[in-house]
Design brief:
Oligomer: single chain
Strand content: under 5%
Radius of gyration: 24 Å
Low-confidence stretches: 5-21
Helix content: over 70%
Shape: globular
């Protein structure tokens, strides 16, 4: 190869690579900013008198926000069954939210002034969840566009989404330090097998980090290896199991109306993903499978 051609390859290839990397990191910065905002707002909503079951149910309504933004941004159109499923999800979320509002407003342990104050904070929590829901849907659309343009790379996306936001937590340093002190003052706990003793809240945090990594790693792998239908179905079922565990183990208040609203949300979600249509051919193929000798 002529030296001049080699020089052209070096400058052309390297410069193009730099431009590509700058574009990629810029898009990741936008996605990371969305991811950081959604995570912080969703967690902060728990400080605004939002019960964990309502938090889970509200976040299960992401299909509503995704459909709305899909219509507005991507100019998508949907079938009647899709709109029906979204209506069910909306009714379910409204039912659970309304019944939770009645519980907050009718708390007999509070006087009228304190009750109003608590209710206003609860409304602010609902507003925070709504904002996070819309932002999360927008992030999903942006992520889908990013994957189509640059390819699906689950480990790369997992790293960027969690490493780049770390400097942003410096803004929450006083709050983090305050809770670290509270954690250190919790009762001691001896970890089985290894015999290490540490404050129990630090143990809970360690287990939360480990289980959260396993969960989010699985989600990122699903987004690159499976269809959106599979991802939505798995995440929805995970939320349902978490909701049931939260109600039964932690004895969170949950009325018959809450159960009805929950049923609407999950039935609507399954209708939207058309899981029934997907299970039919799968069962048919299983029945046609030749029996092993």
């Amino acid at each position: 190869m002529h030296p001049a051609a080699a020089v052209c390859l070096v400058f052309g290839g390297c410069c193009s690579n730099v431009v590509f990397l700058e574009l990629l990191v810029r898009y990741y910065l936008i996605m990371v900013a969305m991811f950081f905002t959604v995570s912080v707002v969703n967690n902060y909503a728990l400080n605004l008198n939002i019960a964990m079951p309502l938090h889970m149910i509200f976040r299960s309504g992401s299909l509503i926000a995704s459909m709305a933004l899909g219509i507005i941004i991507l100019k998508k159109r949907y079938s009647v069954s899709k709109y029906t499923s979204i209506a069910l999800v909306s009714v379910g979320i409204f039912t659970c939210t309304f019944m939770s509002a009645k519980q907050v407003a009718s708390d007999s342990s509070l006087n009228e002034e304190d009750g109003l104050h608590v209710f206003l904070w609860w409304l602010l929590g609902i507003a925070a969840l709504t904002f996070a829901l819309l932002m999360s849907a927008r992030m999903g659309i942006f992520q889908e566009t990013l994957y189509k343009r640059f390819g699906k790379h689950s480990k790369e996306a997992l790293f960027y989404n969690h490493a780049l936001p770390l400097p942003g937590f410096l803004l929450l340093a006083p709050n983090i330090y305050h809770h670290a002190v509270l954690f250190s003052q919790s009762e001691p706990f001896q970890i089985p097998v290894i015999g290490l003793t540490l404050p129990i809240m630090w143990f809970y945090l360690l287990m939360n980090v480990i289980t959260q990594y396993v969960c989010i790693r699985g989600v990122f792998i699903l987004t690159t290896e499976c269809t959106s239908l599979t991802v939505t179905l798995v995440v929805t079922l995970r939320k349902f199991v978490s909701l049931i565990f939260s109600i039964l183990y932690f004895r969170n208040p949950f009325t018959a109306w809450h159960w009805l609203g929950t049923a609407f949300v999950f039935v609507g979600t399954l209708m939207y993903t058309e899981v029934w249509n997907s299970l039919g051919p799968l069962l048919a193929r299983w029945r046609r499978r030749p029996k092993e000798e």
